[in-house]
């Protein structure tokens, strides 16, 4: 559409808005009915370690929401000359898992405990044994049960436990709702009922009955909704919170809030069985839509769902790009000290491309980007670490390849279980995240880790916020019997280009050598955690 037509579509509310709370950025993306991004806005933030927990405070959460929306709104006004007063549909998404507990007055009882915390290992192990179903440390139910094991004071006051996306949705609609994909990071989902697993709910209530709390589990969990269902409307109060200029009208339909895993699947057209995607950021996770149940319970593999409730094998590593970002900051400081002003994006591009000139295994170098604990390798806390032997081939190319390999090291350990133990078939993998703004390099590394072809689409930069906007669009624009997979295949991605890269034997063999060094060197990381205070 031309500018005038887009301006008219905005005025008419023929748009969809997705707002996603990522680990380093809150992003708002407004799309038209052709699924093209009209405008976007963002807010940069970082989690903080406070009183032993990784958290974001409520002020930053609301500021991020309002700033991302405001920047998007201002871009619309600047480019199209109109003010947003209505939107066809809105959806909110955020980092999955974590723990937000509120009382009946809406007071947050303890600071938001994010997915990054590795403080729930005892609870996760006990629940996994009780359910015979893997309960990861990040899941909301693990946080709740760990609080119970710790006999925390806030527990009798709980009225609702939800995720960050669920909280934003509740704040702006008044509805305690959750999308099924995000719900599957709170508590196990039954594919047949498309709801929380009743037998496991019963077991949990039985386990805690002697505590005497004035609630049972289903009393405090949000209601589960499927993609395509309406989960509320923007209230008058919600409109004023979202849009500080008070131009936005109430009554806009809101779709179920989702987790970043679900929006990643949507943004990469990976909701059909035998498809998968990799999302790269502060953390990294791979999702594969499963054809059948896994034969065993693996602590390294989460079982979650698509936004339509299909089972998904998820390998989630807590650490990915943060340590590499820190090194890029160091190189930027060096260039500035040399009197050279360089854009950070150029530094990333130059440094990442050096990895293509490296030895296959990274020259014998070893790195761990563990800013926090890592569940796959069994660490409750971490120390970023770079080591080499006197015989290592220490140069810039190998340094960069090593940091790229280690960003996907824990992920590869989990994915090898799906490939080698469960013989899971994957027809296609799509990667998304900021790393892929530099062409080819990250894609080649992921292809080596997965030993499978990896595609990056031209929409990869918009990521989960765009995927959330697509879910909002699906709610209001799909036909009655049109599945989400068909909607994505036939309407959204029919004309979107992507570049596919097949694994290079050179890279695959090198990664296999590196991962053996990575696993053997975990004792070094353990020593760093124990002795580096």
From TrEMBL:
GO molecular function: kinase activity
GO biological process: carbohydrate metabolic process
Stretches assigned to the Carbohydrate kinase FGGY N-terminal domain: 17-260
Stretches assigned to the Carbohydrate kinase FGGY C-terminal domain: 277-475
Leader sequence segment: none
InterPro entries xrefs: ATPase_NBD, FGGY_C, FGGY_Carb_Kinase, FGGY_N
Keyword list, A-Z: Kinase, Transferase
Gene3D superfamilies (alphabetical): 3.30.420.40
Alphabetized PANTHER family for the sequence: SUGAR KINASE, XYLULOSE KINASE
Family: Belongs to the FGGY kinase family.
Protein name, per record: Sugar (Pentulose or hexulose) kinase
């Amino acid at each position: 559409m031309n500018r005038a037509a887009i301006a008219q579509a905005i005025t008419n509310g023929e748009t969809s808005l997705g707002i996603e709370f990522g680990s380093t950025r809150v992003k708002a993306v407004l799309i038209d009915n052709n699924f093209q991004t009209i405008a976007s806005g963002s807010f940069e933030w970082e989690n903080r370690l406070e009183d032993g927990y990784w958290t974001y405070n409520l002020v930053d959460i609301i500021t991020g929401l309002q700033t991302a929306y405001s920047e998007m709104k201002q871009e619309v006004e600047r480019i199209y000359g109109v003010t947003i007063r209505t939107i066809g549909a809105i959806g909110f998404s955020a980092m999955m898992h974590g723990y937000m507990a509120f009382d009946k007055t809406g007071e947050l009882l303890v600071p938001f405990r994010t997915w990054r915390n590795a403080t729930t290992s005892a609870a996760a192990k006990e629940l996994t044994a009780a359910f015979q179903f893997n309960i990861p440390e990040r899941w909301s139910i693990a946080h709740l049960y760990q609080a119970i094991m710790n006999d925390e004071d806030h527990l009798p006051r709980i009225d609702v436990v939800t995720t960050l996306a669920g909280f934003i949705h509740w704040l702006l609609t008044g509805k305690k709702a959750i999308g099924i994909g995000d719900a599957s990071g709170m508590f196990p989902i039954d594919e047949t009922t498309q709801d929380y697993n009743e037998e496991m709910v019963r077991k949990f209530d039985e386990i805690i009955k002697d505590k005497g709390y004035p609630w049972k589990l289903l009393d405090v969990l949000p209601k589960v909704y499927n993609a395509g269902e309406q989960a509320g409307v923007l209230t008058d109060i919600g409109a004023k919170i979202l849009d500080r200029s008070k131009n936005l009208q109430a009554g806009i339909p809101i779709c179920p809030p989702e987790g970043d895993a679900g929006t990643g699947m949507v943004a990469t057209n990976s909701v059909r069985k035998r498809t998968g995607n990799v999302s790269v950021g502060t953390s990294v996770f791979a999702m594969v839509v499963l054809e059948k149940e896994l034969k065993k319970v693996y602590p390294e593999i989460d079982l979650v769902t698509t936004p339509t409730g299909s089972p998904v094998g998820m390998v989630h590593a807590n650490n990915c790009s943060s340590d590499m970002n820190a090194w890029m900051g160091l190189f930027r400081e060096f260039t500035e000290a040399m009197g050279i002003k360089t854009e950070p994006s150029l530094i990333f591009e130059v440094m990442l491309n050096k990895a293509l000139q490296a030895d296959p295994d990274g020259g014998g170098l070893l790195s761990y980007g563990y800013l926090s604990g890592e569940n796959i390798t069994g660490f409750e806390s971490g120390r970023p670490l770079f080591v080499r032997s006197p015989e290592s081939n220490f140069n810039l190319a190998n340094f960069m390849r090593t940091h790229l390999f280690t960003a996907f090291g824990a992920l590869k350990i989990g994915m090898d279980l799906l490939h080698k133990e469960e013989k899971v078939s994957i027809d296609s993998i799509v990667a998304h995240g900021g790393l892929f703004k530099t062409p080819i390099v990250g894609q080649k590394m992921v292809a080596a880790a997965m030993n499978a072809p990896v595609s990056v689409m031209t929409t990869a930069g918009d990521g989960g916020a765009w995927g959330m906007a697509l879910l909002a669009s699906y709610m209001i624009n799909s036909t009655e019997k049109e599945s989400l997979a068909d909607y994505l295949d036939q309407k959204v991605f029919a004309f979107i280009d992507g570049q596919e890269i097949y694994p290079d034997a050179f890279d695959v063999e090198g990664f296999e050598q590196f991962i053996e060094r990575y696993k053997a060197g975990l004792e070094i990381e353990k020593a760093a955690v124990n002795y580096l205070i």
